[in-house]
Amino acid sequence: MLSVLLIYGVIFITTYWLGRGLLRLLGLNPSGADAILYSMTGIAVAGFYAQAWSIFGGVSAAAFTVYALLAFAAAVLLRARGGRQAGDRQMRVRGVCGSRRQAPRIFARATVCDSESAGRYAQAALAFALVMIFAYAASRGYIHYDTDLYHAQSIHWIEKYGAVRGLGNLHTRLGYNSAAFPLTALFSFSFPGEQSYHAVSGYLALMLALESSRLFTQCRRLLSLRLLPSDFVRLSAMFYLFAVIDEIVSPASDYYMVCLAFYIFIRFLDDGEDDVNSKDAAALHLDIVLCFLTVFTVTIKLSAVMILLISLLPIAELSRRKDFRRIAVTAILCAGTAVPFFIRNVILTGYLVYPFPELDLFHVIWKVPAGVAASDAAEIAAYGKGITDPSHFGDRISVWLRPWFAAQAGVDRMAILAGAVLVIPAAVVLLLEIKRREQGAVRQLAFLGVCLACTVFWFVQAPLFRYGCVFVYSLAAFSAGVIVAAVFGKFRERPRRMLLRGFLVFSILFVLYKCAAVIREGTLLREHGYLISQKDYGTYPMEEYLIDGVKFYRPVIGDRSGYAPFPSTPTDRSAQVRMIGESVRDGFCVK
After folding, report:
1. Cα–Cα distance, 113 to 117 (Å, whole number)
2. Which one of 16, 37, 56, 310 is least enclosed by Cβ atoms within 10 Å?
3. DSSP state, 478?
4. Of 343, 346, 373, 345, nearest to 358 (Cα)?
5. How does strand 550-555 pair with strand 542-547?
6. Tens digit of each residue's pLDDT (9 = 90 or more) over 157-187
């Protein structure tokens, strides 16, 4: 646990300054910018950096050293500039305070600030508690099956060699490129040789928890008796975090994508619900930052590709303003973020996007055979539908829909039905608000459309619930929030106050209930001995085999190998694969 806390500190400090530095470099000043926004932006910067570095070599000590120096340089430059601006502000404050006529006004402002101090103290205490809870959870728990199947080996390859040509030939799942693995390797601190840590998924869960917890600490808005649709999305994010809190020790890309997508959704909705006009420059700047984060989210998990539709709103607004320079900056920023991802795809598998053999643009000797790629794509889609028999991969929806729905958890079935039933009434409510020119209604309707598109795309492609739970939960929660908020606004002050208190009490009781459920299950409490270090990857009995005279390992039983020994594959691949050169660093191709 202590090691996880230290890594959290390193991630926060470096990503905060890198994120803040990028926004300053681009001339962006987002509305409501805070430490979480800077850190999440810095996470995307770190992910881009780790992917780019892995193209040329292993993401280990040298990569982290250069990364830390970049963060230090950003901190020094921003602190120096901030110091000069603070001095200017101090001179202006002295000029104001020098006038006695201004004293009553200044005292009134101080009184308002004092009324919010209790909320700030509560927020600080809650933040400390969340840091400790998620550090504890990320130090122990359930290691995902796929983590010991291929996540750990993928991270090990990135740490040692970076992107290796034709690695997907050695094991097709090693060709599943995700920005989550280079990012994990950057903060794994494997170079001392004791252990490879995997705390980034827990850190992202912590950032989402801090953002969601603002439901209870936004005192000014709560005192104004406003109930917002984003409050319901925050509550659904809390539900998700409690559902996976005993699994975030595992560096599965699903957790990375879902946490980032929830954060993007919440910030997108909050920006449209602020008191300022959503077309102000600061609000538009936040939209540009969210465009950057959406592209990075897609490089983590391709199932989130429809989230890119969020980018259409700022692009449309910039086009209306004829701000072509800002459009060019946004396009370059977003396209540049995806470039290392596509390059890594080509290196690992020979395809621009894997497993989609239709995009066959490169003719390289290490390309994964088209038949293997097509079979892999069909298996992924079928597995999401609950189909494991290859002879049924082409079954119609009428065959697999009923057993698929019955296999979902009870709460998940309710979320699916709620989203399907409430989306049309919510759209009608928003259209009526647009007709009345309600502030933020257009933005909310656009979000509803994006959320619906994400859900439909997920359902059509590969409806495994952990791939798209963020879209299902957000669609159901936001639709319900729109309807409830519209009805809530019709009440007078006293009933609104009572209903708002009831909503907050319900939310608090819900959180306490989920805490009790986690304690009752005891998955985290039963594991001891991780107060200093983090729970390591699994270990399994292995046996050796050779490929072109080089030693590899395979499990004696099953198909999982964990992080070590290295390199490992689920089966003996010596009959199908050969090395391109004399070293595994040179890559692999089929015989």
Report:
1. 6
2. 56
3. H
4. 373
5. antiparallel
6. 999 999 999 999 999 999 999 999 999 999 9
Q: Which residue has the tokens 């494991």?
A: 388
For residues 209 and 134, is the Cβ–Cβ distance under 8 A?
yes
The three-state secondary structure class of 568 is strand
> pLDDT tens, 37-91?
999 999 999 999 999 999 999 999 999 999 999 999 999 999 877 655 544 444 3
Length of the chain: 591
- Who's near 415: CB < 8 A, 6+ residues apart? 472, 473, 476
| pLDDT tens digits, 331-380 | 999 999 999 999 999 999 999 999 888 888 888 999 999 989 988 888 88
The answer to whether 505 and 118 are in contact (CB under 8 A) is no
pLDDT value at residue 93 = 38
Measured CA to CA, the distance from residue 58 to residue 493 in angstroms comes to 61
Concatenated DSSP letters of 143-182: PPHHIIIIIHHHHHHHHHTSS-TTHHHH-GGGG---THHH
Q: What are phi and psi of 372, to 5 degrees?
A: -65, -45
**Residue 543, class by beta-carbon neighbours within 10 Å (0-12 exposed, 13-18 middle, 19+ buried)?**
exposed
Cβ 304 vs Cβ 298: under 8 Å? yes
- Taking only the tens place, the pLDDT of each residue in 432-446 is 988 887 778 888 999
Single out the residue of 153, 161, 152, 155 nearest to residue 56, CA to CA: 161
Four-CA torsion 271, 272, 276, 282, nearest 10 degrees: 50
Half-sphere exposure of 140 (CA within 13 A, CB side): 15
The answer to whether 491 and 214 are in contact (CB under 8 A) is: no
Q: What span, in angstroms and rounded, lies between the C-alpha atoms of 421 and 398?
A: 20
Q: Are residues 458 and 468 in contact, defined by beta-carbon separation less than 8 angstroms?
A: yes
Q: Which residue has the tokens 């439901």?
A: 215
Helix segments in 436-567, DSSP class H: 441-461, 465-488, 493-521
CA atoms within 13 A on the CB side of 451: 33
Q: Which two tokens stand for residue 518?
A: 């986690």
d(CA 355, CA 176): 8
Residue 88: the pLDDT is 47
